[in-house]
Amino acid sequence: MSHIQVRIAAVAVLLAPLAACSSGSGPDTTVRSAGHGATEAARVRPATVTVVPEGRGVRAGVPVTVTAAGGTLTSVRVADADGHALRGTVSADGASWASQRKTAPGTSYTVTATTAAKAGTKSTTTSVFTTAGADKVNKVDWRPGTHTTVGIAQPVSLVFDHPVTDKAEVEKELKITTSDRTEGSWGWMKDWSGRDRVDWRPREYWKPGTKVTLDAELNGTDSGDGGWFVRDYSTTFTIGSTSQVAKVDLDRKLLTLERDGRTVRTIPVSGGTPGGDKRSWRGTAVLMAKEGTINMNSETVGLGDAYDKMVDHSMRLTWSGMYAHAAPWNDRWFGNANMSSGCIGMSTADAAWFYGQVRPGDPFEITGRDTKGTVAPGNGFGDWNVSWDQWQAKSALR
Fold first, then answer.
1. Which of the four CATH numbers 3.60.130.10, 2.60.40.3780, 2.40.110.10, 3.30.1370.60 does domain 4-131 have?
2. 3-state secondary structure of 154
3. Which residue among 16, 120, 153, 163 is least packed, with the fewest CB closer than 10 Å?
4. CATH class in words for 148-241
């Protein structure tokens, strides 16, 4: 990588011909003899500044470094055309400066460096470099949304448009800040859609009232085969003021809503029909969204033409199509038998009440002998079905 060396003409040198006639308080730089003039020129010689990278079309995704020889850096600013500056720090000896952020693709940066020469002369130099554009751009879909209030099991989840082959490089740019220093970890997986995804979950359920902030400073990060990120992402959300858990016992055909460890209400339900593809999932599912009245079509979940109907008070639990919802057509089975196509059905009255109590992020702890398996991490938010040690091992930085 080539260097720009910018030699800064000191103000004192430019004023030298006038010094004999001026009464200013600055240093006297009048040339008195050939030998003495050479000494004075050396004394006021400005610092040499070097900026990396330099030129046009340089590769993005690297930090900017500025170094000074024959003096020290007193300030450095590296900013794009919109005035957005890269954070950075000057070294303790003043000899160098390095940005904390990487350069973004397709961006022109102006570097302004102020130096102090050994003789005390201050000078400022400006240089410009431009990064090459991105051949492919990777984008992110993230949850939960900004300024939302969610339940105690809600993970932070990022799904990427294109594959992330350099997961460690991406994960280094992701930062979670919590109001109570919650312990947690990132874990990589395949989303149900087949796309790369990374979630951050606490070691245990969130404490009620915790405030959470995600800062994904991805602009200028190369995800590998999936291309470059060209923007940052952030979200701030709050955990609800109560610890709320829905416990679903498929053997007893009962759903119990617990709040702060106390039973609020127990509802008779009917789960998935045993012995085949209509069985329900077990383990911890997380309420993904309250979708209200929606059309449910069995063909979309691989169950042929078993049903096609509008369903009220629908609460999504997995991407594969398991919901809790009103199922008045199954009323004779509530509390008696599991006869649904995989969902947790209940009466319209019970579903209406329950729908009004729960929020996205609430955990559904589902147990039962005859189920089709445990909810996978990528099928909705099945992160809690992985032990803490196994979850930590999913981090690319472990």
1. 2.60.40.3780
2. coil
3. 120
4. mainly beta
Q: For the CA atoms of the chain, what is the radius of gyration?
A: 31
Q: pLDDT digits over 109-129, tens only?
A: 999 999 998 777 899 999 999
DSSP state letters, 349-362: HHHHHHHHH--TT-
DSSP 277: T
Q: Where are the beta strands (DSSP E) in 84-121?
A: 88-90, 96-99, 108-117
Which tokens is 340 given?
Answer: 């649904």
Residue 162 has what pLDDT?
97
**Domain regions of the chain by residue span:** 4-131, 148-241, 244-385
* Phi-psi region at 153: left, alpha or beta (left = phi > 0; alpha = psi -120 to 50): alpha
CA angle 254, 350, 303 (to 5 degrees): 70
Number of residues written out for the chain: 398
Overall CATH class of domain 244-385: mainly beta
CA dist 22 and 19 (Å) reads 5
Q: Provide CB contacts within 8 A for 198, sequence distance 6+.
A: 157, 158, 164, 167, 170, 171, 174, 186, 187, 188, 189
Looking at residue 272, its amino acid is G
